[in-house]
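Input chain follows. Return structure tokens only.
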Amino acid sequence: MKPSEIVESALETLDGGSVILRAGHTQNLRWANSALTTNGDTFTSTMTVIAIDPSNPDRVGITAGQVFDPEAAISLVHEAQRAARSAQPTDAVPLWNGQADPGFEQEPAVVDPGQTSTMMHTVGALLDQPQGQFGYAELDTTTTYLGTTSGTRTRHVQDAVRLEASARTEAASTWWGSNTLRADLAAVTRQQTQQLALQEKRAELTPGRHRVILTPAAVADLLIYLTWSAGARDAIEGHSVFARPGGGTRLGQRLTGRSLRLFADPGYEGLSTASHVCTEANSSVMSVFDNGMPLTQCDLIDDGHLVNLRASRATSQRFELPTAYLADNLILEDAAGHGDFEDLIARTADAVLITCLWYIREVDPQNLLLTGLTRDGVYRVRDGQIVAGLPNFRFNVSVTDLLSRIRDASLSSPCLPREWADWFTRTAMPALLIDDFNLSSASDAR
């Protein structure tokens, strides 16, 4: 039976609410010591039923499970309805009145065989390199069917690419990642060879505040966390860096003297995403009552000012703020940025180059202070050249403070975050030159 028919059978039993069915197809390859170790080709089908108690519309029950036939779908509906009757009240608004999109009845998509061939060629080329190679490649195609009792019927196909490769020797390691299969493998090989050689030529650096260059991937890891923290309700309740002392939010305040723009756009070329809200649970920034609501381009920061905080319709009505949802991508642009990553290095007199970050954790939400480690290559830049490898460090930085200390930027380009690639892959960022980046202590991590 078609997924759309299973969704319809569940909706016929549901008094009020939403049904989300995600049909996924994933192919992956993993390798170590320049040899393929595992490969996978997986199909999944998961349904979530969100039931609103008709006698208490502010009570919601949610159940999820693998579903392949109408009987299992109806069983999930009954579980969700029972859960709704005993649920705690939540902020509620009427379900979004959506429309039925053409194509809802189409079968789920699968990974494009052409992409599979390209992935295998790319991995094969990496394994042929002289350095020991470790890495992971994944193609994922997820077809999402959303139906609501208020009329929404949408089907969206989302493709995702994750490609990570490390080259290692006994004393050195590098990392490279991409959210596209359009990789310049010759450039990757040159980068690996250069960085491994530089790490053999070691220099020392005293912990402290330093001028640093962050790669686009490192910038993405920090700004994804900023975006996750940019909730209107959390700010109003005084729980985040975007809370204004004395009450309210920092909406409208300038966060940086640079003309920065941080935004999400479902139609962004190369990083396109679903154009409607589709969430399986309530949170401080999303509501199941908004399922089916159209998504458009939304800025968090524009010309250096905080212009939006993430808010559902219920939150916006409660606190008299604009409703703001972000599509499932994130783009940062600096109006003064120019050239690419290599050009930024070439025009930098003295800095520490940090290639990627990992083990990022929040220390203090009140100022968005994060800690973590550098990994797989830290380097000294002198007179526009990378001249030596440096130790790894633990860092402690406030992401919002960093925005005010940007001194130079490249143009934005698609990039794969290192830390958050399991959850978030569609980003485009510039490389940034930042003053007073706190490298708090040396680390033995590689």
